């Protein structure tokens, strides 16, 4: 499967649909070239590895006590460093990130994840290296 997003539930966006079509076409092109015996050289790619799901701050009654900070909203895949704001309490106080390394949050404030107690997901950048491949 291919999931391209995020986008609001029940919404079809032309730009997202176009990205999905391009991804599927590249995948099919790869399969065709591989089946024709084309050799693919070794390569390195940077990807985002999920590290942890982060919930909203909650009180002892499990009620959300802070919302996504405006500076974090719509910043999926952007670097988040120690001291950067994460949440904003209902009293207007910023709660900051206290991690020991830069992370790249995604699925920030996605409505589909509220019930899963997920404000966002922390990812880190890693490099993957693939050897050359060729069908035999």
TrEMBL record:
GO cellular component term, pick one: cytosol
GO molecular function, one term: hydrolase activity, acting on carbon-nitrogen (but not peptide) bonds, in linear amides
InterPro entries referenced in this protein's UniProt entry, alphabetically: AspA/AstE_fam (IPR050178), Aste_AspA_hybrid_dom (IPR007036)
Domain AstE/AspA barrel-sandwich hybrid, residue spans: 44-123
Protein name in the entry: ACY2 Aspartoacylase
């Amino acid at each position: 499967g291919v999931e391209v997003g995020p986008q609001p539930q029940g919404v079809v966006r032309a730009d997202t649909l176009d990205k999905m079509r391009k991804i599927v076409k590249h995948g099919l092109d790869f399969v065709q070239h591989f089946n024709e015996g084309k050799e693919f050289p070794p390569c390195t790619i940077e990807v985002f590895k999920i590290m942890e799901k982060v919930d909203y701050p909650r009180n002892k009654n499990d009620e959300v006590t802070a919302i996504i900070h405006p500076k974090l909203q719509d910043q999926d895949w952007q670097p988040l460093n120690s001291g950067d704001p994460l949440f904003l309490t209902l009293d207007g106080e910023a709660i900051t990130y206290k991690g020991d390394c830069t992370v790249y949050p995604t699925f920030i404030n996605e409505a589909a994840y509220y019930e899963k107690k997920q404000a966002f997901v922390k990812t880190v950048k890693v490099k993957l290296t693939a050897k050359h491949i060729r069908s035999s």
